[in-house]
Amino acid sequence: MAASDASQTGPSLLLSSEQEMIRQTAHDFAQNEIAPIAAQFDETGEFPSETIRKMGELGLMGIEVPEEYGGAGMDTLAYVLALEEISKADAAHGAIMSVNNSLFCYGINRFGTEAQKQKYMRAVASGKSIGAYSLTEPMSGSDAGTMRSRAVRDGDFYVLNGRKSWVTSGPVADYIVVFIMTDPRKRHQGISAFIIETRQPGFAVGKKEPKLGIRASATSEIVFEGHRCPAANRLGQEGEGFKIAMTVLDAGRIGIASQALGIAEAAYEAAVLYAKEREAFGQKIGQFQGISFKLVDMKTRIEASRLLIYQAALAKERAKNTGQRFTLEAAMAKLFSAETAMFCAHAAVQIHGGMGYSKELPIERYFRDAKITEIYEGTSEIQRMVIARLETGLR
Ligand code: CAA
């Protein structure tokens, strides 16, 4: 595909000129500025500050944030289109972009006070600051309601203690939305959300996670030791934290589905090119049914993922008026797209044979990057559990 045109692999949905524009902008930036550096940043694991700053200038860090708060003021469809394009060039950039947009800005836009939006959402949406989201703890992952970290009210402050893990952008974040227990007796209803400033005392970046994939996105533990967070930085009411975390994850999962779609497409396009060029036994390998049927399965799953993502994006847009949850649509989109990314990356390595296993091509990176989409923001098992509960009403 030509680097100047994003429309050739695009959806058959009628997009507005604004949506087309952001997709093309993301596509051009991804192909011209991210793709050439992706392998190097994957190798070193360095955080790509420069390209992330430029993405902020292009309006990619707060796509759905209203313009009066420094965002691009667009809709969810615009967001998923842009995230897919960025992730197609490099899933690590996609991870950083998705955390800023959905895990940080979406929650503050929906649940924050005017002052919180002005101070924190504006800075992150405009790309001047990096945001993060922290729910997981060393002993609490899928079972998110069992966290051990504590926040205790002390006048106009809360005093935070504890250790959180697997925080995407944790080592570089300026601000983090943290979920922490304020009343352990109440379990889920005893969790509260806070916006914390990482430059304040009592906060430290902990162990950096050495990861299989998305290696240029920085991930670490974070540690609170008597960190004093102003009560004005509580997001929502005391005890509302779990519902805020889940609502934000519903939005986040649509983003991860788009990231997965981008990886799947990159793997698929590389596999088609290779199948048309590489010869064995006197013919192009794409002429073997064993290869062509793999390509068919990849393409069909990619297009099905795309439609599930658009359905989820539209459900999230409708929710702005109705207030209805889009949990089911988000979980289905993430589940299917993540498994599609893994399926396509696996098939692309196989089609490329030895070259798929070599670091000379990006195929092995797609394979490593795809795996995280089946794990973070809720494993595929959790998505199945969410869907099953909603469909059957059984627990
Ligand atoms: N929206 C709004 N409210 C929700 C909700 C949603 N999507 N899901 C649940 N709730 C509410 C329920 O209605 C319930 O409310 P009441 O107390 O009023 O009844 C409350 O939350 C508790 O719900 P459940 O009883 O269903 O809770 P549970 O303990 O059974 O867990 C779960 C539900 C779906 C399994 C949830 O724990 C979950 O999603 N786990 C996965 C966590 C996850 O995705 N972690 C990844 C963290 S982010 C990350 O990966 C790192 C990063 O940096 C990117």
Q: Can you describe what's shown?
A:
This protein is an alpha+beta fold and 395 residues long. Helix content is 53%, strand content 15%. A hairpin with a 2-residue loop joins strand 9 (279-280) and strand 10. The longest helix is centred in the middle third of the chain and has 37 residues, at 241-277. The protein is globular, with a radius of gyration of 21 Å. The mean pLDDT is 96. Residues 99, 133, 135-136, 142, 144-145, 166-168, 188-189, 242-243, 246-247, 249-250, 325, 327, 376-378, 382, 385-386 line the site of acetoacetyl-coenzyme A.
Nutshell version of this structure?
The protein has 395 residues and is α+β, with helices and mostly antiparallel strands. The protein is built from eleven helices and ten strands.
> What is the total tally of β strands?
10
H/I helix tally: 11
Shape: globular
Mean pLDDT: 96
Q: Biggest sheet: strands, sense, closure? A: 4 strands, mixed
Task: Give the termini distance in whole angstroms.
Answer: 47 Å
Strand content: 5-15%
Unreliable sequence segments:
none
Ligand catalogue: acetoacetyl-coenzyme A
Describe the secondary-structure layout.
Blueprint: H1 17-44, H2 49-57, H3 76-89, H4 91-111, H5 114-125, E1 131-134, E2 150-154, E3 157-168, E4 175-181, E5 191-197, E6 203-208, E7 219-230, E8 234-235, H6 241-277, E9 279-280, E10 283-284, H7 289-322, H8 327-352, H9 354-357, H10 363-373, H11 380-392
Parallel strand pairs: 1-4
Antiparallel strand pairs: 2-3, 3-7, 4-5, 5-8, 6-7, 9-10
The structure holds acetoacetyl-coenzyme A.
